[in-house]
Amino acid sequence: AAAVTVSVDPTEVAAATVTAQTLTAEGADGLTTITFLTPVMAAGMQAVATVSAGGLLSDGFTLSYEAEPTTVPLITHLEPSQGKCDGSTVIKVVLSNFRLPEVITDIRVTFDTSFSFEIRSITTDPGMRVEGTMDETVVYFTQPPSSNVGNMGIFVYTNGRNALRGTTTFLCTVPDTAAVSFIRPPFGFTGPVGTSVELGLAYWGGLTDQTQIYVWPTAGAQSQVLEIVSSTAEQTA
């Protein structure tokens, strides 16, 4: 593997050389990718680094060193914030003040639904993905199925730093229960011809054929849906 040479001001710390951990050959974008571990340096320092391989020397680039977070991470964004309890929802969590581990499989996502406690990681959730910068970390994962309706606690942390965990909640809803978002008009006329009413539904199972949907205005009375206006996440019937 190629050697990565990290050079800094010798009056502060001696130059250090580390070896690349992995090297990915040139891809369709024309780039060769390497990974390496930074040598230990104090927080606040900046190191000028170069890559040397096969007698070639790269341009210099800067590595900045920051102190490891010692307080809990903050989850700044959760998308979506609610979904069905059937375990089909891919959740995106954005964290700040979070230290990415050297091994991504050390990231843990814990789900607490009051009655169940499940831990998932990239090793058990093939759909899990992690993206990170010095400013924020983005984790994608699949919400596990749960038989308990309501808020599901989500905790994101690094294995070995269990006390420093980001916390948020995901609202788990019953797949077979549709929530009424709006109704217009909220009344019907008493004449012999029925009144056309528009109804917005959320979490209704993704039906696309209006003949599959029926409305019971009163006991014993049944109305058939005339049309489905849209088929977005919040449906209109």
From TrEMBL:
<protein>
    <submittedName>
        <fullName>Uncharacterized protein</fullName>
    </submittedName>
</protein>
